[in-house]
Amino acid sequence: MSLAEHHMLELPVVAYISFDLTCPDCGHKFQETLQRIQNSPTVNCPRCGVDIDVKFNTHGIGNTTKFGELRVSQSARGSITVSLEVYHEGLHKHRLIRGPDGDVVKAKAFLQADEWNEAWAKKVAADQHDDD
Ligand SMILES: [Zn+2]
Asked: Which tens digits make up the pLDDT trace of 27-80?
């Protein structure tokens, strides 16, 4: 019973968190939800059907910032707290972003992911340079 309630509460928020994607083949712009991308890192363009590899790292380096499970909790007084875990295995970084507004939590999580992906790209570039 409580599981069903939790499910009902969580669904709209998960649907709310979405990514703007642009098809590299036909340029079609569309959105995918975080939930969908976590289930499968490859999506198909709804217009031309091409496979689009959705990674948070544009440099194609294996280790990227990952997002944990989105959690929604409700206090006894009815206020909602959204939390999203962000982590980067290569950098050994972990952060739990919390807030009352899903949009703000999403924005903070993406900023953090960008920062870590950039830090990782620099680290990889530096390591490659050392090998020369
Ligand atoms: Zn397309």
From this structure: 998 887 766 766 666 788 899 998 887 654 333 344 578 887 778 888 888 888
- How many other CB atoms are there within 10 angstroms of residue 85's CB atom? 16
What's the gap in Å between 24 CA and the centre of ligand 1? Answer: 7
Residues whose CB is less than 8 angstroms from the CB of residue 64 and which lie 6 or more positions away in sequence, other chains included: 55, 56, 57, 88, 113, 117, 120
Bridge-partner residues for 83, per DSSP?
71, 98
Distance 110 CA to ligand 1 centre (A): 24
**49 Cα–ligand 1 center, Å:** 6
Cβ-contact 102, 13 below 8 angstroms: yes
How far is residue 56's CA from residue 76's CA, in Å, rounded to a whole number? Answer: 36
Could you tell me where the DSSP H helices lie in the chain?
2-16, 34-39, 102-131
